[in-house]
């Protein structure tokens, strides 16, 4: 009789299974996006505080033994790490890891897209909030639009399984461009994900002004006479996906604020300094770096974090003034990875 191999699972007390690890490999960045970092920047972690390539690969091996199957490298800007190819190839070589992706601002892709593909990266998410060069410069506090567009072009020629664009929708900045992004999906084979601005760390101050829901895209489709239908995309996590009829690409909505999707959360996050966060929003974290040499201690720490994983975050508008159950994180998005 064939005995089915027992699959290891990372289950929390609410029955949620976790197979997805988002790994921030640096807190450094060459941009200062208005929704992610404060204008004055942040003091970066000293190099010795950041996990080395060997430590990152060891960490993923431990997680893979516990049930992680998908890994995303993020940051800060992950392509700033000189050893990114070594990290990607090391993770891809782990048997249990079925999918490796990278989230990037895309600026380094013209020179790195081919090598990332060769190193085993399956999918890319590229952040692009506007098609207007002046606005891009303003929203990223210094970025050049032509560089990221060249990055998207370079990546498109490499045969990645998927390329998605991450577009954070900000009231008074790029909200007026939703139509252009929707039109872009008609001609380009990409998935544009409209993401709600999340109140993380000091972003709370400009968050109230900048927050905009993402459902306006449906009104735009109706006004333009674009019929759309719901669709399923593999490996698409919390995004609700749609396609305009006849379009080459598609669009997705990620609305953690207006409509929580915590009940289906399958992700764990590790920061560049080796701390495990079971929820993006709350401050709770456990240091894993000092447990890398001890598999039992590592597993015990992960189980502790899972057992303490909160049922949901409290980002929603109406909860801003309420007393929260826990302390929200002190980390900015660039120090978590999104
Ligand atoms: N530097 C890379 C990039 O920009 O793609 C990776 C790190 S960045 C923190 C990961 C994702 O988080 C990006 O798509 C970014 O747009 C998004 N992000 C950053 N701050 C955010 C916020 N406050 N609310 C929603 N998304 C945010
Ligand atoms: Fe850097 Fe990405 Fe944050 Fe922009 S969103 S500041 S590119 S980490």
TrEMBL record:
Cofactors, names only: [4Fe-4S] cluster
Catalytic reaction list: GTP + AH2 + S-adenosyl-L-methionine = (8S)-3',8-cyclo-7,8-dihydroguanosine 5'-triphosphate + 5'-deoxyadenosine + L-methionine + A + H(+)
Cofactor remark: Binds 2 [4Fe-4S] clusters. Binds 1 [4Fe-4S] cluster coordinated with 3 cysteines and an exchangeable S-adenosyl-L-methionine and 1 [4Fe-4S] cluster coordinated with 3 cysteines and the GTP-derived substrate.
Leader sequence segment: none
InterPro entries according to UniProt: Aldolase_TIM, Elp3/MiaA/NifB-like_rSAM, MoaA, MoaA-like, MoaA_NifB_PqqE_Fe-S-bd_CS, MoaA_twitch, MoCo_biosynth_MoaA/MoaC, rSAM
Binding site for GTP: 22, 72, 103, 164, 267-269
Region: Disordered, residue numbers: 319-338
Keyword match GTP-binding: yes
Residue positions binding [4Fe-4S] cluster 2: 262, 265, 279
Domain Radical SAM core: 13-239
Biochemical pathway: Cofactor biosynthesis; molybdopterin biosynthesis
SUPFAM superfamilies the UniProt entry points to: Radical SAM enzymes
Gene3D superfamilies found in the cross-reference section: Aldolase class I
E.C. designation(s): 4.1.99.22
Residues that coordinate or bind [4Fe-4S] cluster 1: 29, 33, 36
Keyword Nucleotidyltransferase attached: no
Keywords: 4Fe-4S, GTP-binding, Iron, Iron-sulfur, Lyase, Metal-binding, Molybdenum cofactor biosynthesis, Nucleotide-binding, S-adenosyl-L-methionine
Binding site for S-adenosyl-L-methionine: 35, 76, 127, 198
Compositionally skewed regions (Basic and acidic residues) per UniProt: 319-328
Family affiliation: Belongs to the radical SAM superfamily. MoaA family.
Summary of the function given for this chain in its UniProt record: Catalyzes the cyclization of GTP to (8S)-3',8-cyclo-7,8-dihydroguanosine 5'-triphosphate.
Subunit record text: Monomer and homodimer.
Protein name: GTP 3',8-cyclase
Source organism: Candidatus Enterococcus myersii
